[in-house]
Amino acid sequence: MKMDSGEILVVEDLVKYYGAGENLVRAVDHTCLQIERGKFTAIVGRSGSGKSTLLHLIGGLDRPDEGKVWIEGKDIFALKDERLAEFRRKKIGFIFQDYNLIPSLNVWENIVLPLGLDNRKVKRQDVREVLEKIGLTDKEETMPDALSGGQKQRTAIARALVTRPAIILADEPTGNLDSQTELEVMSLLKNCVKEFGQTLVMITHDEMIAQMADRVIEVADGKVVSD
Amino acid sequence: MKMTTRIAFNNMKYYKSRNILIGIAVILTTMLLLVVPLVGRGMIKLQFAVTDRLYPAWHALYRNVDEETVRKMAVHHDILRYGLRSDAGYMSLDDASVGMIYIDETGTQLYKMELLAGTFPAREDEIVVSQGILKELGQEGDIGDTITVPYQIFRGGELDLTQQKEFRICGFLEDSEANYEKRMYTSLISESFLKNEVPESEVAYRFLFQIADEGLTATDEIEDRIKNIAQQFDIPEKEMNINHEYLMANYVDPVMVPAIIMIMAVVVLAGVITIYSIYYVSMNQRVQEFGRMKAIGGTKRQIRQIVLREGLCVALFTIPAGLLIGTFISWGTMKWFFRYAVSESNEQFVETAMDILESGGVDLYCWWVYLLACAVTLCTVYFSLVRPMHLASKVSEVEAMRMQTAGKKRRSRRKGYEFLSVGRLTVRNLTENKKKSAVTILSMAATGIFLMVTATVLSCADPRESADNTLVGQYEISPVIEENNKEHPERRWSEIQKDNPLNETLRRQIEELSGVERVDAFSVLRIAGGTFSEEEYQAVNGVPKEYAKELERGITEGGVTYEELKSGDKVIVDSALLHWHPELKTGDKLNLTISDGSRTFEKEVEIAAIGEYGSGFSNYNYLIMAKEAVDRMSEYNSDNYFHVIADKDYDETLEQKLDEIVRSSERVEMRTWKAAYEEWKAALGITRGVCYAFLGILGVISVMNLINTMINSVHVRKKELGMMQAIGMSDSQLMKMLQLEGLFYTAGTLVISVGLGSLVGYPVFLYAKRNGMFNISNYHYPVTTAVTVTVVLLVVQIVLTAGISRSVRKNSLIERIRFSE
After folding, report:
1. I need a labelling partner for B45 at 20 to 30 A (CA). Which of A210, B55, B62, B606 fits?
2. Closest-CA distance of chain A to residue B725, Å
């Protein structure tokens, strides 16, 4: 696969089916995609259109039936599980709809967890900077249970940013938030991505959010229908 | 179906994996609750069946009863039937011992005595013998043939001079292997022979009888009656012999039932702890669900019912499985027990037991034990659900929606690590769930403590030590002493002193044997009078200087040095004497009448100390002095024991050589350490078997608990672990984290069970020692058990973690992140 220097992510003929016979679900059906470095891409589609599966495959959380995913020129599914996990924590930042914070760790610890798993030194200043950016400087020691939804998602964003990954994958990050908070979180996310020069791929079914993106890809029945 | 029942049933299916865990716990609990009473009951019944076959049927016998008393006792209303036995004397043979006994007809029935051939003796010259006896006599003969028998009759409390008489053989008894081995036999003679030989005033009967047992079920009630009758006829306690084995086999032993109940209580406790901890661990996950149920109108009672019925549903499906497995295991345990645990002890007993077991002579299974196991298991499930029920019903709707546990205030802030590693992540996890970690560790440690305590008692009950206590050195050689035998006046101690076979020649002879390190002589002085008038042959034990340290070490009260004991004015009293004379204390003076050879003299001694000594050391004497003092007071050679210290506990060649010396002398006899050891080993065999079975049960519970805990702790955190993996935790890091967590639980369990178990074990040992359980004398730390427990727990934990993380990895990351149970 030839890769353009501007492309950070290339999806090549990706296939993922669930079930069999009458129950066969074509979650991702021969999908091809290229995403440029430093751009904010929104993937939209109805519920059940396969956008989440696509995102999970891009992030290496699941393995496809066929096809390849290249991130920064690396065929991620050629990696063994152990290497893939390493690759994920170095190159990919995840943000989930239900935050997925570790309840036994406080805000600071949740943020530095990916660094710890990677045996990387924590640069206090860098983490502080991120905390400041997301506006949680005074919540360093707060436990996740004591945070509001918006604060939780901001913590999750900080966690995704702190390793300075090549690409951030967000799965409806504002789905659980009220509209006011949604806006706050979105602008924060967009600003951060811009400032740190990162690539953001986000799933949403919110028209307004999709409009904030540099590019919108629509998915239906496992296929890209418009770009 | 009621709504609550239907929800409970659906919940059971929905939370399948957790309920499978609980199911396993219930199966194991049911199984143990069935196996313990089944095997316990089976063992008792089997033992009874064996006893019924092997032991005589009399409840008790009184010795030395005269004709007059027999006539009076015969009509006593508490006596169902009675038999008579009288020992007329012995055949005069060199090494073998052949008793000549008269037993009446009821007596033969009560002794379950059956002839191999012929009839019981009726005429004065009739005799029943065995092939072994004929061999010892060096004669041959069949029924109707005449044999010549040299014999000594008991007259006036002594064996009289040898006489000779011709008898006609009228029947044969069978010889057992023990008869041949010990060369001890019994011949039967007629009543008329007894009355001809022994003057009527001197005939002493053994009165064997069965108690009229209407309305009596317990052994102690029957024993009370036996003692009662003895009192009415002034029969002293030492002349009474109660057939405990037979009584126990036919009546309920009041100790047995509590023992079984105690073991079952331990199982119930372990079951409650295990099932409760599973519920406790998973309860947090389900708070939301119960909150929702409340929000749509469920009452507290309904929620309690849902939790209870879910548990009972699981029990309903698993109890039958437990009963089925238990049924098979009971049978296996019984056979295993007899094959391996008891096989060292009494062979005849084991053979008979196996015979009865295999021929189906004992009905192992019984409906009420099954009912009991069901009922107790259901109670166990109920008890373990009480707290979860309470917790679930207390959940408030609002709290539940916010995913928080009822009544539990989580901290909102906490200082954290600046940098996280896998190790620190583990620490966080464990400290954040302190209560859960503590419940887990305590529940596992509880069974561990039981295990260590039992092991402590077991390790203290050492046949080697018991043998050491009964015998100093490896061989003990002493003169053959017989005070009341007119035929052998030279065997009286007073005569032996004048020409003691334990002399320098014998000592040198033994010391020259290879393997012998040295020979230590203990001397004695016979005493009478004063405190000891009742004891027939008491003596002062003279301990040689080589044992000075051991002597001083045994002192428990007062103090005296070996040097001071050389004066002969001071003695150490063995604490066993205090049992008979509790008024004695240090500083008291004792007036002793000492007999030495033919002379006697008075001597006053002071009790300088009280001590505890093994019977091998004290030689069953209550007073101890330095050998030097004893030797000085005696005009003769008063050495009573040669203790042979050898380089090995058992050396066949050495024993043979010593045996030859003993045989050739004809005036000395020998006891060996090996024989004492074997005897103790056999005696402790059954106890050990029972204890090991109990330890096994506890071990299974412990491991079960560990497995449950480990699976649970991972299972309920599947999603959290998935999250960590999504943000980059690799499989090996996950494995490491789970191993560390497991290690923490294991280490915590080990520290508490081994640590606390060892601490508690010591007072239990002291209790066992004070009560003379298993002849325990010294404390031994159960090293083997401690090491085994440690290794087993560690291995189980490591294997388990590997297995669990593999099973976790079977689900894809996505499945795990979405996992919501």
Report:
1. B62
2. 7
